[in-house]
């Protein structure tokens, strides 16, 4: 250490940790396993651990934690279920990880208004379990059993977005703690409002860089009376995408519409012993009354027949539907299992639907020209897709190759009028593309961040330009 | 004038107007009729005129106007069709009104992606006229033939919001000019994104206080194959609202669901010679396939029958449907005509749906106890309603009484978990309720405003706390 400190003069981080320890007792952890468990995310980024992990139990405690960190200029990084894919929770500049595991309650269910208030640490599956008796559900489904707070902070979405929207569309109101500990409330339980800046929308997707969210009020939806679902294969991506565009333009109320490439079908056959055609597939779901979902499925069958698809096999029976979705839900694991010992880099771009076939085909050609494999899965109704790039962890060149493919995907998305991340967020992985995507607007993001967090203690080093 | 100026030292406003005149020529107007026409809005607020009106024709001109105004610290107030209801365009501190009438082109229609790019001055009706051949439409309908830019700036909505959302949900991307003339782009044509702060959502609803919007990319929707619509009467508001809540919970895809109170029915009978029951009414519309819209209407008929409604009369024929909606669309004029010579104060609150019957009934009781009339219309699917408070322009006490009723409505909305404005915006009229609605978050709005517009030239005096 270059500077000397007298015994009386503590480093700011030491002072903050002492103050936090006095306040939280055992709920401030500095154990090595705990720090390691909060050092990164489900991704290929190197772990960077915080100096301590705080486990608050209520908003007042989060506020007090922020006051202590603010007084010493110590960073705070929020943490939910640790399922983010772009290293959003890496403690780039150390500091305190604020883990919301103990703030995991559903605090108010209002079936008449079809809304619910939750603490940020509740997971998607736990929330839907608690809602079961009401006939309502929370539809945003990113695959992982993420925390609702984390999903809001990355503006998560998933397979049901084409019908029910993203977190942007399903968060009505927030309670949040600012950098200095001030507690604010944004939005109300009214379904809409024109009362000033939409701070709720500003915080959703802010990845913990503007505030720590301590409570969320969410829209709920009725569990559909009936669900029909089916699958079919196409000769190529272009026919599949064209069929989807026609379906959307006809106003057929798709609840899910997912595609999987030929390599994904092959991986799933090997994984589950099925005999799917090794072609691009579409998997589709309709929600509604029994009559409506049957009609929707039949009309979809007619559309895809015009685009050289295999016969659209569909069912409204739960068991058959579950079997059908197994490929999509296990797709990631089937792909991983196709290369024993492999690790994956999961990419994520979103383009206008008219550019989707081109984006997928160019990506496939790029992957084919490389030394690694990368089956593709995606949310075709949104124009969002993922290549699961498979790496040999012993071969550093594989990671370089994957990073190159991912970077070219992001550049391709921007060239085609899209975005470098549809649903995984910026974190560390997509920050290099923010300037190209946003231009001067990225500077505006930095201005907003500096205004709300002038000392830069909220998840520093992420999302906005470095100062 | 208290201060002396040498002939060489111009006032900043004079310098700005000289510079603008040199740049815009005849497209900078200082004529009295033009200033008067830009002094306010469709509302009861006193007119406050700008010093000049600028008519830019493209983004570069808006940017140059901003640079000139910024250099002299002169206010800028954006102006679309002048249909705002809360005096959003009053030039509270003078300056330059930026009128977007000449920026009214539809610059790109992309049917395959179901999106469109427009300049801010295009009106809702002109846009839908241009879209007609595509089979697509832009659904947000605030009633007035507002400009799209103005609708975005007030986060407008209307009768179709229950199905298609507000401007928040239908603006994909923006181009905007900041206070200093910097041009930014927010969002992309991708349907969703997790790439950083949602600046699009921050600008939508900002009422020209953060930037001047120069281009908008909007989501479009397919013109429904079939539309069914119908009407029925209820013994009281509670039964009507309960029927609506049941309908929504059952997942029936309402495209519009509007209510009108007994006094509105009475006014319409007098206006149009109809013989509607003088009771609360619901008017409903379903969009979809012919089979689906018929089934939806039949199911709705069953629901309302359980709530003591009159038989639900519905039709899928265009003529009958248009006749049916005449009451809703002409409701405002029918109500105005019920008091010849009267002016109206149009109120606007939004509450959780479970509180809607109570909010309406308390409002009706408050109006009944006053000396003025105030029929009620609303968007029951959103919990949003308006009392049309009728004033004798010769009686100043009527305006005081209307303001009192409007203030108590806003306070009632907040007490019931709602918002002081569902769709008309803050402007001048709702600013007194911002602190009560947002608490410390109102201060955050002020912080954001100060960060993006440090000299306070963008629509000064509106929306955020006075500094």
From TrEMBL, chains A, B:
InterPro entries, sorted: FAD-bd_oxidored_4_C, FAD-bd_PCMH, FAD-bd_PCMH-like_sf, FAD-bd_PCMH_sub2, FAD-linked_Oxase-like_C, Oxid_FAD_bind_N, Vanillyl_alc_oxidase_C-sub2
SUPFAM superfamilies listed in its UniProt record: FAD-binding/transporter-associated domain-like (SSF56176), FAD-linked oxidases, C-terminal domain (SSF55103)
E.C. number(s) listed in UniProt: 1.1.2.4
NADP keyword on record: no
Superkingdom, natural source: Bacteria
Keyword Oxidoreductase: yes
Keywords (A to Z) from UniProt: FAD, Flavoprotein, Oxidoreductase, Transit peptide
FAD-binding PCMH-type domain boundaries: 45-223
Gene Ontology MF: a single term: FAD binding
Required co-factors: FAD
Pfam families xrefs: FAD-oxidase_C, FAD_binding_4
Protein name: D-lactate dehydrogenase (cytochrome)
Classification via PANTHER family: D-LACTATE DEHYDROGENASE, D-LACTATE DEHYDROGENASE, MITOCHONDRIAL-RELATED
Family: Belongs to the FAD-binding oxidoreductase/transferase type 4 family.
First-level EC class: oxidoreductase
GO biological process: lactate catabolic process
